[in-house]
Amino acid sequence: MEVNRQNNESIYELRQVFRGDGSIYEFYELKRNDEVVENPHPSVIGKHVYGELYFSEPSKLTDLELIENIVIEAAKEGNMHIVNISPFRFKGPNGVDGGVSVIAIILESHIAIHTWPEANYATVDIYSCGASSDPHKAFEYIINKLKPKNYKKNYADRSNKYKL
Predict the structure, then answer these.
(1) Which of the residues 129, 133, 136, 159 is marked catalytic?
(2) Which domains, ranges and CATH numbers included, belong to the chain?
(3) What is the pLDDT of residues 36-62, one digit of tens each?
(4) pTM
(5) Is 59 a catalytic residue?
(6) Closest among 100, 101, 99 to 118, alpha carbons compared
(7) Of 18, 100, 134, 146, which one has the fewest beta carbons inside 10 Å?
């Protein structure tokens, strides 16, 4: 058992389970005062927060740098760890800026924002399989920074139980 990281009085320990087919399943176990507090084995964690954002004016929806920075900071707010980020700008009609898409691959899964300035509309998709991540905090950060006129937030628990 290897102590991997420490958070105040809590310690995350890397655990390994050997499956019948010879493969190894690794997971982190949260311990506090040498007692297991959280053991994600054998469940799959799936927290999916997604929503639609409605704007009265589209200026933020064409700002690729702004959207990319918001995704980066939202990941930090939600205790998620970016592996790769891909920003993309679409061409609008008659040479005007079109919408943007920013997709971040995170260790825990992904964060994506897609915009349609011609419709004053954007979508946000945050999926995390991390036990200590909080996609709700990441979503709220995005809302606070983009300040839509109105928005709809959805949540799906995509967790599953399985046996090794």
Answers:
(1) 129
(2) 2-43 (no CATH), 44-157 (3.60.90.10)
(3) 555 545 567 889 999 999 999 999 999
(4) 0.73
(5) no
(6) 99
(7) 18
